[in-house]
Amino acid sequence: MENIIIGIIFLSAVAYLGNIVLKNFSLKNKAGCSKGCGSCGAIDFDKIAAEMESKN
Fold it and tell me: Which residues span the membrane (predicted)?
């Protein structure tokens, strides 16, 4: 019985780590870092140009 419980815990830990690895290498992350918050120097030049044009 305890082998089954240990196996379930082990498999859930492997699934959790696999999920973290997939999130780190996902193509959805356009910010360039693993956090995905967008504060890591990801500069949107198109947005800056549009703001500058709208101010003129």
Answer: 6-22
